[in-house]
From TrEMBL:
PANTHER family: ARFGAP WITH FG REPEATS 1, DRONGO, ISOFORM F. This is Arf-GAP domain-containing protein. InterPro entries: Arf-GAP_FG-repeat_protein (IPR052248), ARFGAP/RecO (IPR037278), ArfGAP_dom (IPR001164), ArfGAP_dom_sf (IPR038508). Signal peptide: none annotated. It comes from the Eukaryota. Pfam families: ArfGap. The keyword Metal-binding applies. GO terms for molecular function: GTPase activator activity; zinc ion binding. Gene3D superfamilies: Arf GTPase activating protein. One of its GO terms (cellular component) is cytoplasm. Residues 14-139 form the Arf-GAP domain. Keywords: Metal-binding, Repeat, Zinc, Zinc-finger. PROSITE patterns: ARFGAP.
Amino acid sequence: MAYSGSGAKRKQEEKNLKLLRELAALLPNKHCFDCGQRGPTYVNMTIGSFCCTACSGILRGLNPPHRVKSISMATFTSEEVEFIRNRGNDECRKVWLGLYDGEVRFLDGMRDDQQIKDHLIKKYERKQWYVSPAEIAHQAKLMAQH
């Protein structure tokens, strides 16, 4: 009996990994949300975005630390996959870079860890460009009425 439960669990984990890889293959998720590097290998479980190895390390060092998981080395629950599906880089961009003014240069492809860390502190600790999901929903509702 325990064997079939274990087999079912393994099957569900494989299904979750397949879904996660499909999400990672979507165009907005093909680059690190934080620095723009191509082919992110981690998921930021704190906000639901995809990130690269370098940024995953920096994110863990922020205050509060972000919870990141390796796509290839970790297992993901169905709830975690659903959380990521409902967010992803596009939705995270609306929230965490919602007030991004264009004058501030985005770090696409930049590999200077200190500059990236400074950018992430502004983004996550200071919430410099943050727009609450409730405000985003309210704005979308207003736009739909017009």
